[in-house]
Amino acid sequence: MKQVRSRGRPRGFDRDAAIDAAMLLFWEHGYATTTLSALTTALGIAPASLYAAFGSKDGLFYEAIARYGERHGGFDRAMIEAAPSARALIDAMLDGAARAYATPGLPRGCMVISAALNCSPDAADVERALRERRRANEHHLAARLARARAEGELAASAEPAVIAKTVATVIQGMSVQARDGAERAELVAVARAVQPILDTAFARARSPRAGNRSRRRGTSRATRRAGPARG
């Protein structure tokens, strides 16, 4: 009797390990240049098994991006909204990116930033998905900064959207620099170089209060020196 070969996934297929392997490939080489052959070799499965498990290369890529977000993706909306202060959040984002983008043993840079660069028109959906993800993170940061301004942490004259875009631009630039070989210490120095810009926006929010306290203290001392008012 002729045996029929199974077209399903091989015995012992580890879906989590497969996603991890695909994540590293896409992170290192990008979506466009990561071939189906490279994926099936790294995952140890046949093309038919990859399609059976993930539907398509795109499907595997989206799962790899989700895995990257869980393990290496930094700050999501919940973390941004839960941060104790907007300034502490931005400092953590910049310093965290500088250190993460040059981690030994991992691909350099940010997968969300670099994985869909220079895609062909056939991969427009992938490129759009990552662009929307980056924009969403920037929007959430701008919203958190608007809250900081309303609460008095950020200067009333500061523009949350501009600050959020500045932070996003620096982070994206650090990712490119990391891909080009910048060392961790260099990226940390870049993150620290942004601090004076942030100091200005956040210090303005504190200075009027400090000035009011000084004026009140000065008024109190002057009142004590002058003694009670005479009628």
Write up what this structure looks like.
- The chain is mainly α and 231 residues long.
- It folds into 2 domains: 57 residues, Arc Repressor Mutant, subunit A, CATH 1.10.10.60; 133 residues, Tetracycline Repressor, domain 2.
- It has 11 helices and no strands.
- The N and C termini lie far apart (120 Å).
- The N terminus and C terminus are likely disordered.
Keywords:
single chain; 231 residues; mainly alpha; Arc Repressor Mutant, subunit A; Tetracycline Repressor, domain 2; 11 helices; disordered N terminus; disordered C terminus
Q: Low-confidence segments, ≥5 residues, pLDDT <50?
A: 1-7, 208-231
Strand content: under 5%
CATH class assignment of the largest domain:
Mainly Alpha
- CATH A-level architecture of the largest domain: Orthogonal Bundle
What's the name of the CATH homologous superfamily of the largest domain?
Tetracycline Repressor, domain 2
Helix content: over 70%
